[in-house]
Write a structure and sequence with these properties.
about 260 residues, alpha+beta
């Protein structure tokens, strides 16, 4: 069964609906042989030497820590970081373009950075600062000062900690979409949908829960066009994006929701 077929069973009143949070699911682990934290440790060790080689290593490994973290985020969210491009993931560019247009942002960054920025996982100002220092080193052969080298470590550490905090603590990964909510009755109100992002399986499960009968489930992978909109809604806690996830064409000014739980 496809997602659009579920909408014939459960109809949400998009002008007033409720998001009932049930919890956050996350996994603490990276499958890379060298992790972002390890690259960061290398940068800190390089900085201790205080010599020319150490300053170069500090900047290079800080940059590697950020790049590794970006690829880890992409992989964590269910995408193939090795071939993460506009050609393979056509639907992502729509989310990116909408965000950049709303925020009046430039489009000079890589596709990966634009994706991270569009999901509001981290401001790209972190990365732009360290790139400027690295470019001076690699293209102009200008050695960074001790202060600048230390700054790259701090930026990399802030980026890693901030992005993990959002994915582990802020990202609403399991919730219900329902038409009614009673603060004294915490049980879900049928009919409704249950949305569940499973990082272990790299998929999003959409369960249709009718007033009677068995639940019906649809599973989405990153290759499905709706996938990125469910991610955007849960990470940013902006559930206007559910309209696009479910394929409706409704002006967001007519969409109203409250987050409970």
């Amino acid at each position: 069964m496809k997602l659009d077929e579920l909408q014939k069973i459960v109809k949400i009143k998009w002008n007033k609906f409720y998001i009932f949070r049930q919890g956050n699911t996350w996994i603490d682990g990276v499958d890379f042989e060298v992790t972002p934290d390890e690259f960061l440790d290398f940068a800190k060790q390089d900085y201790k030497s205080k010599d020319k080689k150490g300053l170069v290593g500090t900047v290079t490994n800080s940059k590697r820590a950020i790049d590794c973290q970006i690829d880890w985020i992409i992989s964590y969210l269910g995408y193939d970081y090795l071939s993460f491009n506009e050609e393979k993931y056509l639907d992502i560019i729509n989310v990116i373009n909408d965000f950049e247009e709303d925020e009046k942002l430039n489009r000079d960054y890589s596709f990966k950075l634009r994706f991270i920025q569009a999901l509001e996982i981290a401001p790209t100002s972190f990365i732009s600062q360290i790139r400027k220092i690295r470019n001076k080193l690699e293209h102009e052969y200008i050695l960074p000062s001790h202060e600048k080298a230390k700054e790259t470590i701090e930026i990399a550490e802030l980026f890693i900690n901030a992005t993990q905090n959002i994915l582990f603590n802020k990202f609403i990964t399991r919730y219900y979409i329902q038409n009614e909510y009673d603060s004294e009755d915490k049980f879900i109100k049928k009919p409704c949908y249950r949305i569940d992002f499973n990082p272990l399986k790299s998929e999003i499960e959409i369960s249709c829960i009718p007033e009677s009968g068995e639940d019906i489930e649809v599973k989405l992978k990153s290759s499905d066009k709706e996938f990125v909109y469910f991610l955007k809604a849960g990470i940013c806690r902006n559930f206007h994006y559910l309209i696009k996830a479910f394929g409706y064409d409704i002006d967001k000014k007519y969409i109203n929701f409250e987050i409970k739980g």
